[in-house]
Amino acid sequence: MAAGLKSIIALSLVLALGFLLLILSCALWGNWLPLISGFLFVFAPFPNVLGRRGAGADDFSGDYASGPLDLTRFLTSTLLVSAAALPPVLAHAGVLAPVASVMAVAGGALVYGTMVAFGDAFRGAEETF
After folding, report:
1. Which of 45, 65, 108, 128 has the fewest Cβ atoms within 10 Å of its own Cβ atom?
2. What are the pLDDT digits (tens) for 57-101?
3. In this structure, is the dihedral angle defined by the CA atoms of residues 97, 98, 100 and 105, taken in order, positive or negative?
């Protein structure tokens, strides 16, 4: 196991801080729309996780199939851009306070970064069948 107890504690603290910023960006101003951005940040890594298995050479052809990997990267980037752009757009429209917009983007970025770091730190040796 490459990552130890210290990395688990550090990642959990950063994740808690990210969720705290997301919840405070909603609760302090009584507007729960930034939570949509938080959900987008939370669900952004899932296309890469699900599509990682489909990429690569298969048993029937020696060609490398990058189509599924490209699709998952496109979906991930679409979710990330949408999640990062939604709070500033809402702040520009006057629906959301500008400080809440900054808190929502910062909290979401911390949550996404923690999820990606956790996946990289605890990814074991891939088994091949």
Report:
1. 128
2. 555 655 666 777 888 899 999 999 999 999 999 999 999 999 999
3. positive
Tokens of 93: 């429209």
Number of H helices, E strands in the chain: 5, 2
**Among 35, 34, 75, 21, residue whose Cα is nearest residue 52:** 75
Residue 111: closest CA among 4, 12, 7: 12
Q: What's the number of CA atoms in the CB half-sphere (13 Å) around residue 42?
A: 12
pLDDT at 66: 73
Q: Which tokens belong to 62?
A: 């020696």
Contact 87, 96 (CB under 8 A): yes
CA dihedral 92, 98, 103, 106 (to 10 degrees): 50
Half-sphere exposure of 99 toward its Cβ, with a 13 Å CA cutoff? 4
Helix (H) or strand (E) holding 64: strand 64-65
Quick check: 16 and 103 in contact, CB under 8 A?
no
> Could you tell me the two tokens for 2?
């490459």
